[in-house]
Amino acid sequence: MTIIQAINITKQYKIDKITIDSLKGVNIEIKKGEFVAIEGPSGSGKSTLLHIMGCVESPTSGKVIINDTDTSSLSSKALTRLRLTQIGFVFQQFYLLPTLNASENIELPMGEAGLSKRKKRERTKYLLESVGLDKRSRHKPTQLSGGEQQRVAIARALANEPSIILADEPTGELDSDNGKRIMDLFGTINKEFGQTIVMVSHDMSITSRAQRLIHLKDGRIVV
Amino acid sequence: MTYLKMSLRNLLRRRWRTFFTVIAIGTAVSMMILLTSISLGLEQNNVNDNTIDYRVLPSGSTITDPITGAGQIMLENVHSEAKTLFLDQNVQGASPVLNSVIYSRSNTDDEANVIVARGIIPGAIDVVPASVSGLTHGDPYFYGGEWTKEAVINRQLADLSGLNIGDPLYINISADALIDSEPFIVVNIFNKIEFSGYPLVVIHLSELQHLSGKMENEQADHIIIEGENAGELLERLYPHHLILSGSEYTTHMIVSDQRILATAITASLVSFIMGVLFIGTTMIMSVSEREGEMAVMSAIGISRSSIIRTVLYESLFISLAGGFTGIIFTFIGKMLLVSFVLNVFGFYVQSITDPALLLGGLGIAVVSGIFTSLLAALFMKRPDISRVF
After folding, report:
1. pLDDT values of chain B reduced to their tens digit, one per residue, 389 residues
2. ipTM of the assembly?
3. Phi-psi region of A94 (alpha: psi -120 to 50; beta: other; left: phi over 0)
C-alpha cells in the first residue's frame, strides 16, 4: 500500500532576480512500512523534497498524496493537523524546545492532539524508556548530550504514533557511535512499530541501512 | 499548561529584560494611580475615613467640594433623615455634612479670610472631624435650643488667624456680615494631618445651615453612614438618591468631576501607551528571537493559535507582574511623596488610593498586555519553516 506519493514535483526558489530550480519533476512512491533513504550531494534538493513530502513546504508544481489525501487541496490548518497526527519530524539539529524538559518536549504534540494528562504521561514514559532515556526525563535540552537530544527528538516524533517518520540528516551532528545508536533506533522503530521512515543523508554508511535508496542529483532522481 | 510553562520560562530565561520591562510598566501604572489619587485627594475637601461605609448623595449630585460645588443639588430635611437612620440597628453612626465657603476674622486679623466651613452633628459618627472633641454632642439649635457658637478649627486656621482655644472667631457668609456677627468660640484645635491642606472650621450643622442660608428646606451636601449592613436599609429609605459605598464613592468622584476624570483618563492613556510600548518592544524581541522555535513548533504540528497563545501568555505575565509592581510602587511612592512634601513644603498631600483605583491600574496593565499580544498576533508572520531548517 502506497503511503506517500510525490507526483511530478518541481520547486523553484527566487533569490533576488535569479530563479533556482531545486527540484525538477520528481516522482516517488513510498510504501507503508518502508525504510527509504534519499541520498545525494549537498544542494541536490533532498531536504527540499523531504520538506515537501512533510507538508512544511509547498511544491511549485506537482502534488503530494499522503494516505490517499491530496495535500495540495488542504488548508494550512489541515496541513498542520496532518503533520501533527500522521508525520513525525526528526531534524539534524534536534530542535528541541529549550524551555521544556525532555518529557515536556515529548508531551507537547500529544497535548496538541488532545490526549489526556494520564495518557500523555504513560506514553511519554514508554517512549523515554524505548529510547533509553527514562532517567533523563526532567533534563532540559542543554543538559543532554547531542545523542541524547536526538533520541528525545525521535521520541517526540513518535509521540502521536504517526505512520510516517521524516528524518533530515538525523546523524549529521553526532559522532559515529551516537550516529550508529540513532540508526539502530530507526531500525527498531521501522521493524517493531511498523512506521514508514524516509531519511535524508549524504553519508553512504548511514543510507546503506535503509531498505531502499533514492539517489538525487541536481533536483532529479538518478537511477 | 505546557504553553503557560513555556511562556513563563521564556520570560525567566531573559530575566533582566523581563525585570526592566516589569519595572517600567510598574512605574507607568503607579504614576497613573498616584496622579488620580492625588487629584482625588486635592478635590475631596471632605470627610474621608475608612469608617464611612456609605454615603447618601442627592441623585445627579457631583462631588461635594465646597469651592466648586456651589449651586449643586442638595439633600433636604437632613436632620430627620439622620434621625430615621439612627433608629435602625444596622446603623452605628450617621451625620449629614454641609460644606460651605465662608468668611472668617479673628481679633488679630486685619481683614477677613476665606475659609472652608463644615457643618456636622457632633458625636453622631466616629469620624474626624465629626468626632473631634470640644463640640457639644447633637445639634441643640436645630431642636429649639440656643446657638452653641462652638467652633473647632484646624491648625492651618489657627496659624492663619493666630487663634488659641477660647479665642473668639467671627464667621459669616459675607465679609460685610462679619461686622454684626456674634463670635464663635474656639473650643478645640485639631492637628489631623489629612485636614491640613486648607483653613477649616467645624461647627454644628444647623448653625452653618443658618449662616449659609440653607436652613430653609434644611439642606446638606450628603450624609455619611457607618454600618456595613446598612445598604438594604438605605436603598429602601432613599430610592431616589445615590447610595455609594467607599469604592463607589471614589468612582463617582472620578466620573462626576471633569477635572478628575480628565486627569484619570490622561494618566490612564499615558500609562496604557507606555505599557504597550514596553510590552510591545519586549514581545517583538521575544518573537523574533523565537522565530526558529515557532517554526519547529509549526513543523511538528502545533497550530498557529497555540503558538500565538504562548505570545499572549507571555505578555499577560509581564503585564500582570507590571500591574502588581505598580500597586507596590504606588504605596512606596505615596509614602515618599507625603514625607517629601511634608518636610519640604510643610503640608500634607491628601491622596485617596481606593481599591477601585488599584484595580483600575492593574486593569490598564492587563489591557495593554492583551492589546499588545493581539497586535503581535496580527502582525506575526506565519513561521517560514524552510528558512529555519
Report:
1. 788 888 888 888 888 989 999 999 999 899 888 888 887 776 655 555 566 788 888 877 665 454 555 556 778 888 888 888 888 888 888 888 888 889 999 888 888 899 989 898 888 777 766 666 788 888 999 888 899 999 999 888 998 899 999 999 999 988 888 887 889 999 999 877 667 677 889 999 999 999 988 888 888 888 888 888 888 888 888 888 888 887 677 777 777 777 778 888 888 888 889 888 888 888 888 888 888 888 889 888 998 888 888 888 988 899 999 999 999 999 999 889 888 887 887 767 777 777 888 898 899 999 998 888 888 777 776 666 666 56
2. 0.88
3. left
Distances in whole angstroms, Cα of residue A151 to Cα of each of A17, A74, A130, B14, B334? 41, 31, 9, 28, 56
d(CA B337, CA B340): 5
Which ranges constitute the DSSP H helices of A19-140?
A: 46-53, 76-86, 102-113, 117-130
Which element (helix H / strand E) includes A22? strand A18-31
Task: Give contacts of A97 with chain B, Cβ < 8 Å.
Answer: 6, 293, 296-297
What is the C-alpha separation between B58 and B70, in angstroms, rounded? Answer: 14
| Helix, strand, coil tally for chain A in percent (to 5) | 40, 30, 30
Three cell numbers at B312? Answer: 499572549
Q: Which chain A residues contact residue B384 at CB under 8 A? A: none
Nearest residue, CB atoms, A80 vs list B9, B293, B301: B301
Report d(CA B237, CA A173) in Å as an integer: 81
Q: What Rg, from alpha-carbon coordinates, does chain B have?
A: 27
Instruction: Give me the residues paired with residue A199 across strands.
Output: A37, A167
Chain centre to alpha carbon of residue B204: 26
Q: Cell 511549485 maps to which residue?
A: A60
Pairing outcome for strands A61-66 and A69-70 = antiparallel
For A204, counting Cβ atoms within 10 Å of its Cβ (0-12 exposed, 13-18 middle, 19+ buried), the class is exposed
Neighbouring C-beta atoms of residue B235, cutoff 10 Å: 11
Q: Which of A60, A11, A5, A46 is nearest to A27 (CA)?
A: A5
Nearest CA in chain B to A13: B386
Contacting B with CB below 8 Å, chain A residues are: 47-48, 51, 54, 56-57, 76-77, 80-85, 87-89, 91, 95, 97-100, 104, 107-109, 111-113, 156-157, 160, 168
pTM of the model: 0.69
Determine which of A110, A112, A158, A169 to mutate to test the interface with B (most B C-beta atoms within 10 Å).
A112
d(CA A157, CA A150): 10
Neighbours of B389 (CB within 10 A): 20
H-type alpha helices, B44-98:
78-86
